[in-house]
Structures are given as C-alpha cells and as structure tokens.
C-alpha cells in the first residue's frame, strides 16, 4: 500500500470518528444533556471517546459551523447560550416555518398520515396526565415531524428541523410547565381540525400561534431564565 493511500485512509478514519463524536455531542445538546453554557474541554472529550484530540477538534469545528457551540481562544468550547432577545427572534422564524409546513400539509396530507398524527395526539393526551415530561416532549417532537413530512417539501422540512434543533433545549425547558403541556393539546387539536378540513390558511395560523411566543406565553418563557440572560450570545 503506498504512502498516499495510507494517508488517505488515515484521513478517512479520522473523519469517520469525528462524525461519530459530532453526532453524539449533537444528540447531547439537542436532548439538553449538554445544557446551554456547558463547557466542552478537548482533553476531557478525547478521554471520554478514547481518541486523540484531532477527531475531537474536527467534531467541535463542525458543531461551531452549525451554530451549536462557540470555540474560544485558549478556553474550552462552550454550548451556545442564546439571549432572550435572540431566542424570541428564532421562535418567530420557527413559527413561520412550521406554519408553512402546516399550510402545505393541509393541502397534501394523506389519510394515513392524518391518522398517524391523531394517534400521536392521543398518546400526548395520556402523557399529559402523568409526570413523564421527557416522553411528552419526544411524542410532541414526532407530532411536528409528521407535519413536516406531510408538507411533502424536503427542503422546508430540513430547514425547519435545523432551526428546531438549535432551540430544542429551550423548547424542552418550556415543556416542563404543566400548563404548557395542556395548552399544547388544545393547540394541536386546532391544527388537526384544519388539516382534516384541508383548511391551509387555518392550519398555518394555528401552527404559528402554537409555536410563537406571544402574550402570556412570552412572559412565562422569560420567567424561566436568569435575569442576566440578555448578555448571552
């Protein structure tokens, strides 16, 4: 085997390991296991994954490019901690993207897809009667994924999902409130009704209202965060 082939093979293996590390860290960030502001030390990560620092650095570089972490000079990388103002802006965009997904879904959803959404909603009703917040959050995520899929627009689904992932830790935090879970059920029922009736305008409006932070929802959201959060990124 030539030196060039050996070199290429080594780069491929490093890239593959870096991708694996990136996927695990992404999952930790999206699930809230790595909370906003958490530090990511290269040495600690290399020990955790039993690798050299090279694939760790590569994984961190990609996470930074995706806007999930910040890489700082001579300091450990840090999971991005967004300011309240920035989060509100992102929720506004998220509401429009999800509203468009719902609009298209109302035109294109199949009977099977609609039945699947109703089944997920039934699970949410049952979970809302318990303290299984993580399970509620996961089924709620699948409900929204079902609407992305029913829009039959893969690019829109990808962009919506990417933004949802960036603010996932904060959406998860809001779900901790029992009142928010109850409101979610009512708002989902509005969306489902519009989807079943093929009311694309109503579906878009219902979904925007469901996702956006307005009125009391905004006040409740802001109450979850420290007073100095406005100084975050």
TrEMBL record:
Keyword Cell division appears in the UniProt entry: no
Designated name of the protein: GntR family transcriptional regulator
Keyword Plastid attached: no
Lineage of the organism: Bacteria, Pseudomonadati, Pseudomonadota, Betaproteobacteria, Burkholderiales
Family annotation (PANTHER family): TRANSCRIPTIONAL REGULATOR, GNTR FAMILY (PTHR43537), TRANSCRIPTIONAL REGULATORY PROTEIN (PTHR43537:SF49)
Organism: Verticiella sediminum
Origin: domain of life: Bacteria
Pfam family, one: GntR
GO molecular function, a single term: DNA-binding transcription factor activity
Coiled coil: none
SMART domains: FCD (SM00895), HTH_GNTR (SM00345)
């Amino acid at each position: 085997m030539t030196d060039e082939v050996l070199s290429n093979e080594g780069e491929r293996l490093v890239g593959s390991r870096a991708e694996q590390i990136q996927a695990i860290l992404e999952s930790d960030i999206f699930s809230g296991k790595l909370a906003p502001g958490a530090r990511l030390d290269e040495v600690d990560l290399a020990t955790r994954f039993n690798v050299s620092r090279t694939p760790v650095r590569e994984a961190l570089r990609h996470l930074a490019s995706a806007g999930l972490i910040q890489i700082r000079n001579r300091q450990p990388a840090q999971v991005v901690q967004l300011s309240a103002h920035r989060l509100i802006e992102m929720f506004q965009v998220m509401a429009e993207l999800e509203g468009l997904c719902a609009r298209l879904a109302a035109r294109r959803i199949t009977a099977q897809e609609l039945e699947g959404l109703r089944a997920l909603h039934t699970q949410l009703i049952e979970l809302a009667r318990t303290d299984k917040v993580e399970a509620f959050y996961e089924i709620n995520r699948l409900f929204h994924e079902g609407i992305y899929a029913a829009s039959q627009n893969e690019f829109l689904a990808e962009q919506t999902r990417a933004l949802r992932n960036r603010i996932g830790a904060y959406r998860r935090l809001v779900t901790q409130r029992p009142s928010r879970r109850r409101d979610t059920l009512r708002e989902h029922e509005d969306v489902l009704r519009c989807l079943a009736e093929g009311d694309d305008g109503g579906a878009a409006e219902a979904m925007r209202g469901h996702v956006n932070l307005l009125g009391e929802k905004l006040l409740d959201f802001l109450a979850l965060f420290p007073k100095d959060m406005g100084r975050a990124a």
